[in-house]
Design brief:
It contains twelve helices and four strands; from the N terminus they run E-H-E-H-E-H-H-H-H-H-H-H-H-H-H-E. By secondary structure, it is mainly alpha-helical.
Length: 288
């Protein structure tokens, strides 16, 4: 380890390096010698295996907190350059859940970190699971009881009613997500969100961009669009945390800094859109 040279700073990016007031580099660089990786990918593998391990040992032995500088490549797609319509500023009319808004603000701070941002926006949705799963169960139970054909003497019908009355209890996380999105989203606004951005539409229905996750195809009328959105968001969530879905196959871990993680930009936009709608749906009049 030694101070970063001027050549390294020029070849990499000066923004990675901290400088003293007199202009000298205050950042260190790590040199690995004696190996001859044949390709760029092999060199990255050496850096990950040796460099990251060395710095971890250094932190344990000497409490020296150092990490490899990350190069965050720009998104693989160009965001729309069309300026939004100008809307006059006005005092807010509604207030939002402070806890959920805090999670949302945290998510917006994860700029360029797709996995962290995705999970943080997912937490905003998760915050509302109990509320909307319970409200959906109440609505379904009320509809069942209003049905003149409902037979109180039928154990099967009573059993189904009891399951509805359980609200969140016994419902999978995927079903709670679907209940939340059904309460907060309209099909037309999801269609507009996807179709107004051709690259986004192509990404969301391409099975090869991110493997082992559901696709979203607004032209597929055989599948409920909001359910498609919920399934994709939940599948990605499972791959990020390496979870299992209801006793199914192990989800393949989605690694940070991997090509697939770099492809998540459109999905981060999608879960952000859903989180925004959940916040709006839960808003109430300002009391002050």
């Amino acid at each position: 380890m030694s101070p970063a040279t001027e050549a390294l700073q020029i070849l990499s990016s000066r923004s990675f390096f901290i400088r003293e007031r007199d202009g000298r580099s205050a950042s260190n660089s790590l040199k690995i010698e004696g190996l001859q990786p044949a390709t760029h990918l092999e060199a990255l593998k050496v850096l990950d295996e040796l460099g990251a391990s060395f710095l971890f040992d250094l932190q344990l032995k000497y409490a020296y907190g150092a990490n490899l500088a990350l190069f965050r490549s720009p998104p693989t797609y160009a965001r729309t350059s069309q300026a939004p319509a100008l809307i006059p500023l006005s005092p807010p009319r509604y207030s939002y859940s402070l806890e959920a808004l805090s999670l949302y603000r945290y998510a917006t701070s994860a700029n360029g970190m797709n996995l962290l941002a995705f999970l943080a926006y997912y937490q905003v949705l998760e915050f509302f699971f109990a509320r909307y799963s319970e409200s959906e169960a109440i609505r379904k139970a009320r509809t069942t009881l209003r049905n003149p054909l409902f037979n109180i003497e039928d154990d099967g019908e009573l059993g189904r009613l009891l399951i509805l009355g359980g609200g969140v209890k016994g419902r999978s996380e995927r079903e709670q997500l679907k209940a939340t999105l059904r309460s907060c989203l309209e099909v037309d606004e999801i269609k507009d969100f996807v179709m107004n951005h051709p690259q986004r539409a192509g990404h969301l229905k391409n099975r090869k961009k991110i493997e082992d996750v559901s696709t979203i195809n607004v032209e597929n009328r055989a599948s409920d669009l909001i359910d498609q959105v919920a399934d994709r968001i939940y599948d990605i969530r499972c791959r990020v945390v390496h979870a299992k879905d209801g006793g199914g196959h192990d989800a393949k871990l989605l690694m940070p800094y991997s090509p697939e993680a770099n492809e998540l930009s459109h999905d981060v936009d999608l879960v952000r859109f859903c989180a925004q709608r959940a916040l709006i749906a839960s808003a109430g009049p300002i009391q002050h």
